[in-house]
Amino acid sequence: MSKATVLASLVSTSVLSLGLAGPAQAVSAVDYAALGDSYSSGVGASGQSGSCLRSTNAYGPLWAAQNSPASFQFLACSGATTDDVRNTQIPALNSGADLISITIGGNDAGFASTLITCWTTTDANCAAKVNTGKAYVANTLPGRLDATYAAIKAKAPGARVVVLSYPLIYASPATGCALSTAKQVAINDGARVLDEKIKERAQAAGFVYSEVRDDFSGHEICSPDPYLNGVTLIPAQNSYHPNNKGYANGYLPAFRGSAG
After folding, report:
1. Quick one: signal sequence residues (predicted)?
2. Per-residue pLDDT tens for 58-80?
């Protein structure tokens, strides 16, 4: 299977946290729901199943397993956009939810198609595609995020909502990678712009924003101990998603620190 074919499959399946030590702490009165896209459903980790590619090794199920909330709704789905969250996930959300986590926005901004372009064409084309995504993030995504956050607040007005960021994909820059330095820098720049806009709109909604980049620092693709998958052949959708370590040591600590 060619790299282009592998990356093409990302369009329909991808976007684009507590260590395992220590005793579980019961949160018996908390009703928790994990919303969002593939970075919340657990794509990239082992144990994915169903059409939404949900994994018990995603940060949401890991947190629930260790904290024993009163209930846990795992509604995140691979490939989800803001429209999917509003039209499919929020209608299924328990209106009495006390705690909600979400990653969303990467699919809206065309993250997967950007990666395909950067892998299969020139540095100039990669930069142009990233710039197109940045323009979308600046001009269109804010309204979509605002509508999504408002819908969450309307459905579960008493919930503490934690909006998690996306990690940077590469070190600054990584050496010995298949992609050129120019492409790595462009992709990371696009991710930073996306995270900054997500942070801005989450805080405007009165939600908690949790940054995962520090937790992934030193563990990007091409690092000695990566928390992210590079381009994978089987299964192809794992490409550019956190691996088991990424969810357990990256996303889970970031969520735990913000869950309250």
Report:
1. 1-26
2. 999 999 999 999 999 999 999 99
